[in-house]
Every structure is written in structure tokens, then in C-alpha cells.
Specification:
The complex is a heterodimer of chains A (307) and B (286). Chain A has 307 residues and is of the alpha/beta class. Chain A has helices at residues 41-48, 70-73, 91-101, 106-120, 135-147, 165-180, 192-198, 216-224, 237-245, 267-279, 295-306; strands spanning 2-11, 14-24, 29-34, 56-61, 76-79, 153-157, 184-189, 201-206, 209-214, 228-234, 250-256, 259-264, 285-290. Chain A is 38% helix and 28% strand. In chain A, strands 5-6-7-3-8-9 form a 6-stranded mixed sheet, sandwiched between helices. Chain A has a 4-stranded antiparallel sheet with strand order 11-12-10-13, covered by helices on one side. In chain A, helix 3 crosses helix 4, helix 3 runs parallel beside helix 5 and helix 4 (106-120) crosses helix 5. The radius of gyration of chain B is 23 Å and the shape is globular. Chain B contains 12 helices and no strands. Chain B has helices spanning 20-33, 36-64, 69-75, 83-87, 92-106, 111-115, 118-123, 129-163, 173-198, 202-226, 237-248, 257-278. The chains are: A alpha/beta (307), B mainly alpha (286). The A-B interface holds A 42, 45-46, 49-52, 68, 70-71, 73-74, 76-78, 80-82, 84-86, 89, 93, 97-98, 100-105, 107-108, 111-112, 115, 119, 145, 149-150, 157, 177-178, 180-181 and B 1-5, 8-9, 11-18, 20, 23-24, 27, 30-31, 112, 115-117, 120-128, 281-282, 284-286.
């Protein structure tokens, strides 16, 4: 369905995406585009949606070059990032125009509108102006817009930004349902947890480069090699240090007033053991703060590995 | 889990449905018609039109009633029936108000899409830049033309109805005035489209359009002063829009045909080029 062969994108002198190659086969499924801001996720999406031609290499979607290609555009749906709608405009009017742009009209448009609103749970609320909708509702309208013409490829750019946990879970369920129905979905995000909950395959991007590609467990394994810093505050810093040095995952230890900063590998095996020690009273824990669990730190680590 | 009921219609094939330019045009038109701004300008234009029609009726009355012969002589000075009167159907006051309306409405045409990042979404559909710009241009030029048409056709129809071929409005007046209205509408459309493309919000678009209107007039004034030649005034959009009806009706203007044609061509080329460049897909990044 999607094939990139050394596809790159330049904005003048700035490299948005280094030569990148990967393939996504036909059929449903969710693929995560993971990377911090400026990683090249939006550049890749723009190539896939035919908004920009590749500066080099080749991009194929449904077997065709997508740039300004109506045969491709008619079969894909885009949910761009951002939450800005013209004030006072009603959701259903906006959706109607988008449906017409996809070639729908008359009864076919009415049915498509009903179906998209039913899928997104917005049947009774689409007639409201955007200004009176919650952020989650506006996101659903945006998604309904992309579903009107029954796309086989759905691309969502940072769809979870600003959504509350409940709206986030609802959107995830919705995307899973669509993927089970045969729609290939690409979701970009800079939050690992979001993507990991949702996707069966991840593309890791950093500074315009595709760093890694694989299933969630494979990517997790890769990420586990990155030492994570944890600040452990306790009544006795010495007790923390005594316990920590016995752990295989410990990479470094730095003493501080009222605690210690531990650098550990495989936090997924380390943290349950820490919990166990606290429950058994072996560790007088008062607080635990992850210092660098953000994606940038992980990517910095991966980049070092790739140099 | 299947999500599509088998009874639903198949998805549209490429090329089906309404032309994208028409869809975008209709959407913009409906949006503007819902604005209170449209009602305000509608009232203003209606008032001007009523005054024009009343003037026409009084003119006819003076000419046709023998008892009013003395008054007719007195009023001929300000109610002439020659080419100047025909040109006055597209009177400068109405054109000035129209520039204001077009700047207000047209200034937001592209700028609103820029502000709300609508363009990438449109281009992710089977919509070409030509569709997009064509729809916006059709609206930007169609609006002033639609406002000017009643000012030409209503007095013309009324004059024919009350006085036949010898009425105050020439039977052939639309043949002169419609091309003038089209030239003025094209200018207004190109300028507002260019201004809106340069702006990042509808308010800024209005500012740009007004700035271009006033700035071009100022530039024309400076150039004509510097070169001591009134033809340079044809750089000004206000001058151009007032000159077109007069030129087509064969009246004397300070500028003449060639400067007006050059000035119009310059503005059309400049502002349309800017609009084309600023609405390319590469400018509509997500």
C-alpha cells in the first residue's frame, strides 16, 4: 500500500526528511510514527498525502506517486494536527463541503455523512458551531471528515494532543475499530505510551531520519537499552544506595541530599523490584521521580547508537 | 468488526460529483450570506440604488410633463442625460463603498484558510490549486459584479419601461457599462485575492486590501506629481475604477485608454501572481 524508496524532502536548504525507505503492505492495521517535534513526522505525512513532491527518491501510495494525484487522494483521509476552526461555523456544514470535495453529493453525501457521524459518535452534535464543541468533539468531527469518502488509508497527525484521558481512550477504540474494518491507519505522535497502546508497528523518526522500524516489543527492547534516570528520595540515602548497588540494572548512582539519582537499564524489570522492596520495608522510599523518561532523551540515546 | 453496512452506496470514483471549485465557491458564498456584514452593505447599496432610481424617475417626469418645463430647464444642469449620466450609474461613491465591502469580505477569503490551516486539508482531497484559486477568484470578482449589476440593469429596465427608447438611460447603456463593471470587478477581485494571500488573518487581509487601495492611489499621485503627468494616476486603483465607465462611454479622462489599460494589466498581473504563488500546495504545509 505504501512504499518509500530513499524518499527525501527538503525545504530549501533545510532537510525535512533524509532518504528513507520502508514498505507497508495492504490491509488494515495501525502504524505509529514516533518521534519528537522536528523529527520529520509531518514531512513524511506531507509526502504520503501528496501535499509535496519528494525532493529525491520515490514515494508510492496505492502503487502510484501521490503528489497531486486524484487517484490516490480519493482513497486517503487526512486528519491534520491543530484545533483551529473558523468561529461560528457549524460542524455539519463543514463536513458537507468536505464530502462534496471528495465527489459525494445528494443522497450519497447524506448517507456518507450519517455513517461518518455514527462511527465517530457525533450524530446528534454535528449541528453545533465549532466554538461550542469540546476539543474531543472537534477531533471527532475532524476524523468524520476524513472518513466520509471511505478511505483505505487514514493518516492522523498528533491526534491525541490536548485530549483528556477519556477522549483519548475513545479515540483509540475508534481507530482500532476502523483498523479491524480494513483501513490502514498511520498515527503520528511524540508520546511513546500513546503509540505503544495503539499500534502494532512503529516507525521511529529523529531529526529527519528513520532510526528504527518494527513491532512495539522490538522497539521497546531497543528503548530498554537506554538508561533511565530516576530520583529516589528516602529517609536514608545510604539505604537507597545499599539496595541499588545490588541490582543488575544499575548503571550509575549519584548521592543527593535526602536520596539518590539512579541510572538504570530495563526500567520495566527494575521498577517492579523497587516496588517489592518498598512493600517489604527494605527500602524507606519517600518519593520517585523519573528524570529523563521523555522521548527526546531516548532518541538522543538511539542517535548515539546509530553514529 | 465490519464498519460498512452492505446497503450503503459505493465510495465515489475520482471525477464524480460537483467540480471542486464550485463547491468551495458555494461554501464561501453561503458563509458570507450568513454574515451580518452582508445585511449592512445590502442596506447601503439598496439606499444608493433607490436614490438613483428616484433621480431617474424625477428626470423622466421633468422631461415628459409640459407643466414642469421651467423646472426642467433648471434641473438640466444637474440631471443631464448624456454619456456622463450613463457613466454616473456606476457612480464613484458607490464604487468606493464597494471597494470597502470587497476589502472586508475578500480580505478574508484566503487568509481565513491560512489562519485555520484549511488549505492542506483541501489539497489532501482531489482539489488542485487551480480549483482553489479559481473558486476564490470567482467569488472575489463575482461579488462586486453582482452588486454592480442592479445599478446597471434596474435603471436601464425602468427607463425602458417608463419612457421607451427615449428614456434617460440609453437602450444600449448595458453594452457600455457591463464591460466597465467586469473590468472593475476583475481589479477588485485580483487585489483582494492578492491581499488576502499575503495576510495571515482576515483582519490583516482587510488591512492589506485597504493598504493596497490607498497606497496605489498615493503612489499614482506621487508619480504624477513627480513627472508632472496626470497619466501616472492610472497606477491608482481608485482612479482606474472610476476611469473605466467614462472611457468606455467615450468621455474625456485625464489618463486615456493606454495608461488605464496598462495600469489595469499591471495590477491584475501583480496581484494574481502573488495569489498563485501564495496558494501553492508547498505553501500549505501541515
Amino acid at each position: 500500500m505504501i512504499s518509500l524508496q530513499r524518499a527525501s524532502l527538503r525545504y530549501g536548504d533545510i532537510l525535512g526528511l533524509s532518504p528513507t525507505s520502508f514498505d507497508l503492505g495492504p490491509g488494515g492495521g495501525i502504524t505509529g510514527l514516533l518521534g519528537p517535534n522536528g523529527a520529520g513526522k509531518s514531512s513524511l505525512i506531507q509526502l504520503l498525502c501528496g501535499l509535496l513532491p519528494p525532493s529525491g527518491g520515490e514515494v508510492r501510495v496505492f502503487g502510484e506517486a501521490p503528489y497531486r494525484n486524484p487517484l490516490v487522494l480519493a482513497r486517503l483521509g487526512l486528519v491534520p494536527e491543530g484545533d483551529r476552526f473558523p468561529g461560528g461555523m457549524r460542524g455539519d456544514r463543514w463536513l458537507r463541503m468536505m464530502g462534496q470535495l471528495s465527489g459525494l453529493q445528494g443522497r450519497a453525501l447524506d448517507l456518507a455523512l450519517q455513517r461518518a457521524l455514527a462511527i465517530t459518535g457525533m450524530e446528534s452534535r454535528a449541528g453545533q458551531p465549532f466554538t461550542s464543541m469540546s476539543k474531543g468533539m472537534r477531533q471527532r468531527v475532524r476524523l468524520a471528515q476524513a472518513l466520509l469518502h471511505e478511505p483505505r488509508l487514514l493518516i492522523l497527525d498528533e491526534p491525541f494532543n490536548g485530549l483528556d484521558p477519556e477522549a483519548r481512550l475513545q479515540l483509540m477504540d475508534l481507530l482500532r475499530m476502523l483498523a479491524e474494518g480494513g483501513v490502514r491507519i498511520i498515527v503520528s505522535s511524540h508520546i511513546l505510551g500513546e503509540v505503544a497502546q495503539l499500534t502494532d508497528r512503529i516507525l521511529l523518526l529523529f531529526r529527519g531520519r528513520l532510526l528504527a522500524e518494527g513491532s512495539v516489543p522490538e522497539i521497546r527492547e531497543l528503548l530498554d537499552r537506554h538508561p533511565v534516570e530516576l530520583r529516589v528520595t528516602a529517609e536514608s540515602a545510604a539505604a537507597v544506595a545499599r539496595w541499588a548497588v545490588e541490582q543488575d540494572e544499575l548503571v550509575a548512582l549519584r548521592m543527593e541530599d535526602g536520596g539518590a539519582v539512579l541510572a538504570v537499564r530495563n526500567p520495566r524489570t527494575f521498577l517492579p523490584r523497587l516496588q517489592e522492596a518498598v512493600v517489604e520495608g527494605r527500602l524507606p522510599l519517600a518519593g520517585l521521580d523519573p528524570l529523563d523518561l521523555n522521548l527526546d532523551a531516548v532518541f538522543q540515546f538511539l542517535t548515539k547508537d546509530n553514529q | 468488526m465490519p464498519i460498512y453496512a452492505p446497503s450503503l452506496p459505493p465510495r465515489p470514483e475520482p471525477g464524480q460529483g460537483l467540480p471542486p471549485a464550485l463547491v468551495i465557491f458555494r461554501f464561501d458564498l453561503r458563509r458570507v450570506l450568513r454574515l451580518k456584514l452582508g445585511r449592512f452593505f445590502g442596506f447601503v447599496f439598496l439606499a444608493i440604488l433607490l436614490i438613483l432610481v428616484a433621480q431617474l424617475y424625477v428626470n423622466h417626469l421633468m422631461a415628459s410633463k409640459a407643466a414642469l418645463a421651467d423646472i426642467r430647464k433648471a434641473t438640466e444642469a444637474f440631471l443631464p442625460q448624456g454619456a456622463r449620466f450613463q457613466a454616473g450609474l456606476l457612480n464613484p461613491f458607490m464604487i468606493t463603498i464597494l471597494w470597502l465591502q470587497v476589502a472586508l469580505v475578500g480580505g478574508g477569503l484566503v487568509a481565513r484558510d491560512t489562519l485555520y490551516r484549511i488549505r492542506p486539508l483541501l489539497y489532501a482531497h482531489p482539489v488542485t490549486p487551480l480549483d482553489y484559486l479559481g473558486a476564490k477568484a470567482l467569488f472575489a470578482a463575482g461579488l462586486p459584479l453582482a452588486v454592480m449589476l442592479p445599478f446597471i440593469l434596474l435603471p436601464w429596465g425602468l427607463s425602458l419601461a417608463i419612457a421607451g427608447l427615449h428614456g434617460p438611460v440609453w437602450p444600449t447603456a448595458p453594452l457600455y457599462l457591463l464591460p466597465a463593471a467586469i473590468a472593475i470587478s476583475a481589479l477588485m477581485g485580483a487585489v483582494t485575492l492578492g491581499a488576502s494571500s499575503l495576510a495571515s488573518s482576515p483582519k490583516a487581509g482587510f488591512g492589506w486590501a485597504l493598504g493596497i487601495l490607498l497606497g496605489s492611489s498615493a503612489l499614482g499621485g506621487v508619480a504624477s506629481g513627480a513627472f508632472s503627468d496626470a497619466r501616472w494616476m492610472a497606477l491608482g486603483l481608485g482612479t482606474l475604477s472610476k476611469a473605466w465607465p467614462r472611457l468606455i462611454l467615450g468621455l474625456q479622462t485625464e489618463q486615456g485608454w493606454i495608461p488605464v489599460l496598462l495600469g489595469t494589466g499591471f495590477h491584475l498581473a501583480l496581484w494574481l501572481t502573488i495569489a498563485v504563488r501564495r496558494t501553492r500546495p508547498s505553501e500549505a504545509t501541515i
